[in-house]
Amino acid sequence: xxxxxxxxxxxxxxFAIRGNGLLGRTATLRAxxxxxxxxxxxxTLALVGESGSGKSTTARLIARLIDTTAGTxxxxxxxxxxxxxxxxxxxxxxxxxxxxxxxxSLNPKHTVERIVTAPLVYQKxxxxxxARVFTKALMERVGLNPDHSARFPAQFSGGQAQRIGIARxxxxxxxxxxxxxxxxxxxVSVQAQVINLLRRLQDEEGFSYLFIAHDLAVVxxxxxxxxxxxxxxxxxxxxxxRVFEDPQDPYTRKLLAAVPRIRxxxxxxxxxxxxxxxxxxxxxx
Length: 285
Description:
alpha/beta, 41% helix, 24% strand
């Protein structure tokens, strides 16, 4: 089996919490406690758990938005925390994040064109074909009207705004996209549309996802493998169907018991998508 694209080993993240009053003692909160995970090229690892379990903190460590207290992160064989200068810029291009709330992650004063091309500008890379042509092509890929490239985020619905965030992530041709609760703020019907978009883009480009979520019904539609977090630790991990059909940890069983069972449209969509994917793979072979 090939080497993983991403390997995180024994990650720890601690935060100092001040007590009440002038003489309050400082306590330490361990948000991530000895977490190890791997993501291979072209696969989707779903990191699931309740709010406060440490999922998003783990994602931010991997994206190097915050520093680790202990542990190592390797990406394509390179130690991430040793990267500086141009190497760090290159890493930020290879690993992109799609955030939960599209409106708070998009500058309300910038047009779609400026938002989508910003990663290339910040990295001092040329915009292929010019900003307008490049933006319109990306908007078409994510299912947006390319004639709306001069509009602002507030002029789009939540699902459309999230597609802008996805387009921005795609602008630098990443190898790993971290989707941090990227569909949890959307209506169920819009969730399905965005999930289908994410899967189609992965089929076309071959990149990997680290998919952060608490909704296991959503996770089942997109994940290749699943890692379950509780109180800062990974308590169970494995292939998606194994984890869903034969959970070993009591916490995993608790999460699965809370999943609404009446979602036939999700299961039907998953079966159609998997059948279509197999047909494409067989046609390309």
